[in-house]
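ok trying this again, last paste got cut off
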Amino acid sequence: MNSRNGLVFALLSAATFAMSGPFAKSLIESGWSPGGAVFARVAGGALVMTALALIIVRSRIRQVRTHSRTVLLYGIFAISGVQLCYFNAVQHLSVGVALLLEYLAPVIVIGWLWITKGSRPSPRTVLGAVVALLGATVVIDVYGSAEISAVGIAWGVAAAACLAVYFVVSERADADLHPVVLAASGLTVSTVVIGALGLIGILPLAFSSSPVVVADHTVGIWLPLLVLVLVSTVVAYLTGIAAITLLGPTVGSLVSLTEVLCAVVAAWLLVGESITFGQAMGGIAVVAGLIIAKLGQRPPTRPASEPMTNVMAKE
């Protein structure tokens, strides 16, 4: 049951994360800077998640002090690092190449757990990772518009490393660090980091009150902002943490590859970009790879006295 719930949470997280692209693009095209869109997203998410933490798990907010290192890693790398490195990568590379580099994260996770914990992946997990990554390259049509830049590649690999931190750190959300507390504190740290970078002039923060265009309809800026904050941040991070807690970072990171497919569908519905037959086949390859990886997952080793718990059942 935990595995099934974890898969549902992972797919929901991938779908909600994927919606951020089209709505953020609508803001950027209306005069916002990428940094401004990211700042609005994390700042709004921090406010909502902090309010939820105060209402739902008020007694556990003190966990932030005990797990300050985890919170800082999560806010700086897993949230701020992923978004900022990716935006820098797309300045030098095509979107397809940048996204593919970012999704080398599952390979980094597998290698990291193998080196640090001796958690050697099964042949099926490795095969599933390869098949899923190959399918992802087809979905984003990387072979049709590849551009090579050493600086862009460096930013893309940095984004992958930060995304790997997200998968590994999210697994630490348990009875001692509630998912709501982790998300709220991490987003708060991210807001401070991005705001500070903007204040000292490293990261341009530009905002606009001009109407935006979404799915060929002109709407106020409130719509993309609400989607970015409530759907692509609050829902996405909560379900993502829950999924990785239940599935583990290896399979959780592989399931997250469905975000690529979800992003293509979201772009088709909201921006009018078409989906080719090849991309559909790539999507099938992604799903097939995830199934192979799931079948090859090694059960986690736990002490005999330690029961399996469902993190979302806490509180």
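PB: full thing came through this time. Residues 60 and 178 are 7 Å apart (CA to CA).
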